[in-house]
């Protein structure tokens, strides 16, 4: 990648002082001149830094382009002011990793990221010619299997019980693994009056984020929506911890890392079809207005949401956070692929080259007219920004894209950067949900 860096960016380190070996990176303040970390080709990218007091040693900067270490390391004298400039003439997602020069390998580091020419990224591979025919066949097969639904009432607090009804729901699917989650709706709603919000879940098995909750459906139902929340694996949502550990070590062990051989054994096929089944059920509610259907999720939940946008024509909106499986073919073009990184794990000469494209949100989003609200983390190496944009660039509907130069995949940032994220990323997300719920009301 050195040639790319040399051809596309003019790097200028323009400070001339020193940094403290005693201070942590929480004491430094790094700022790009574009708060969202997004630049047009030809723009000058400027990074400034305010160091702590009593500085005494320099920093070392390592550069990554499109998720790949360029091999370039530079010593940066850490004076207050501009420490980095770059100009790009071709698309590049860049991460700058700083460490203290006097710290041994494996010590504390700070990373900040940006993207230049985001609109120029394209998926690593071409869409299979039968991409949408494939999914129509899968959905027809799913719908041939009878839908059996079991609802178990969930007791609510008196204030909610007077206006809402809530159920644990189990819905049979294409195999022996059902949809399991919760559904909540306003009572006695007129026909064709309410929106739907469907919550999907991130990767894993035993973590709290992997399970559907009553609190999540209550949140949306209180706003006036029919809400459904279901986990990705068809597991129970309120079982003892031993149950989840047994799944992690048994049926669901390394489910995202399994060698890809064919569609029938690829884990994400039935995961996506369970999501289709859940939407088939919830959209049968007479109170649904037939127009507003939002799917939402983070990481793997974003992957499922993106797939549903592409294969389930009733979806009007997707609110997805650092979405996975958008750009899983990035490696073909020399970029870091999106989770679960099938080519990195299976190889370019493996069946993954033929199977994985059918599940890639970068291909499934192409041409969609759905509204998209997407959060991108500029230092996310699990779901890299270059790959997310490679998919968003093919979508034709309204797009609201929010991003943070400090946002890794797991949203852990120093307080000064977290407050910026809350203002410029989280609040717009909350506002978008409110706008969706109230859209079309008079």
Q: Summed up, what is this model?
A:
The protein is an alpha/beta fold and 442 residues long. The protein has helices spanning 2-8, 131-144, 158-161, 214-223, 241-249, 267-282, 300-311, 342-346, 352-355, 361-364, 385-392, 415-438, and strands spanning 29-32, 38-39, 44-50, 59-65, 68-76, 81-87, 92-100, 109-116, 149-153, 164-171, 179-186, 194-199, 226-230, 288-298, 317-321, 371-377, 399-404.
Task: Report what the structure shows.
The protein is an alpha/beta fold and about 450 residues long. The chain is built from 12 helices and 17 strands. It has helices at about 1-10, 130-145, 160, 215-225, 240-250, 265-280, 300-310, 340-345, 350-355, 360-365, 385-390, 415-440, and strands at about 30, 40, 45-50, 60-65, 70-75, 80-85, 90-100, 110-115, 150-155, 165-170, 180-185, 195-200, 225-230, 290-300, 315-320, 370-375, 400-405. It has a 9-stranded mixed sheet, with helices on both faces. It has a 5-stranded mixed sheet with strand order 2-8-7-4-5, covered by helices on one side. A hairpin with a 2-residue loop joins strand 4 (about 60-65) and strand 5.
């Amino acid at each position: 990648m050195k040639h790319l860096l040399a051809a596309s960016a003019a790097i200028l380190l323009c400070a001339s002082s020193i940094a403290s070996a005693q201070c942590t990176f929480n004491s430094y303040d790094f700022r790009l001149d574009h708060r969202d970390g997004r630049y047009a080709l030809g723009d000058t990218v400027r990074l400034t830094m305010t160091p702590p007091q009593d500085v005494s040693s320099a920093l070392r900067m390592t550069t990554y382009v499109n998720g790949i270490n360029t091999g370039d390391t530079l010593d940066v004298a850490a004076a207050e002011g501009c420490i980095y400039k770059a100009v790009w003439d071709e698309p590049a997602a860049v991460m700058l990793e700083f460490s203290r020069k006097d710290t041994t390998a494996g010590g504390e580091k700070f990373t900040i990221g940006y993207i230049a020419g985001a609109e120029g990224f394209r998926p690593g591979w071409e869409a299979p010619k039968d991409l949408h025919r494939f999914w129509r066949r899968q959905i027809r097969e799913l719908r041939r299997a009878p839908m059996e639904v079991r609802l178990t009432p969930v007791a609510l607090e008196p204030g909610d019980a007077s206006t809402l009804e809530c159920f644990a729901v189990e819905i049979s699917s294409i195999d022996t693994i059902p949809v399991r989650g919760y559904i909540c709706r306003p009572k006695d709603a007129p026909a064709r009056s309410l929106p739907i919000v469907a919550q999907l879940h991130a990767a894993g098995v035993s973590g709290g984020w992997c399970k559907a909750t009553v609190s999540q459906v209550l949140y949306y139902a209180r706003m006036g929506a029919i809400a459904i929340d279901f986990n990705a694996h068809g597991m129970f949502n309120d079982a003892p911890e031993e149950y989840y550990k047994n799944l992690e070590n048994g049926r669901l062990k390394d489910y995202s890392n399994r060698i890809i051989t064919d569609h029938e054994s690829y884990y994400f096929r039935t995961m996506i079809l369970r999501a289709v089944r859940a939407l088939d059920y919830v959209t049968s509610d007479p109170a649904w207005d037939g127009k507003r259907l939002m799917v939402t999720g983070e990481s793997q939940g974003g992957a499922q949401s993106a797939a549903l946008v592409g294969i389930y024509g009733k979806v009007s909106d997707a609110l997805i956070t650092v979405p996975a499986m958008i750009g899983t073919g990035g490696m073909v073009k020399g970029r870091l692929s999106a989770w679960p990184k099938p080519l990195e794990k299976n190889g370019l000469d493996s069946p993954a080259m033929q199977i994985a494209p059918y599940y890639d949100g970068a291909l499934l989003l192409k041409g969609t007219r759905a509204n998209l609200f997407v959060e991108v983390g500029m230092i996310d190496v699990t779901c890299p920004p270059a790959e997310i944009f490679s998919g968003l660039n093919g979508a034709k509907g309204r797009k609201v894209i929010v991003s943070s130069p400090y946002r890794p995949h797991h949203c852990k940032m120093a307080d000064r950067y977290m407050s910026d994220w809350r203002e410029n990323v989280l609040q717009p997300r909350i506002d978008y949900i409110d706008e969706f719920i109230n859209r079309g009301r008079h």
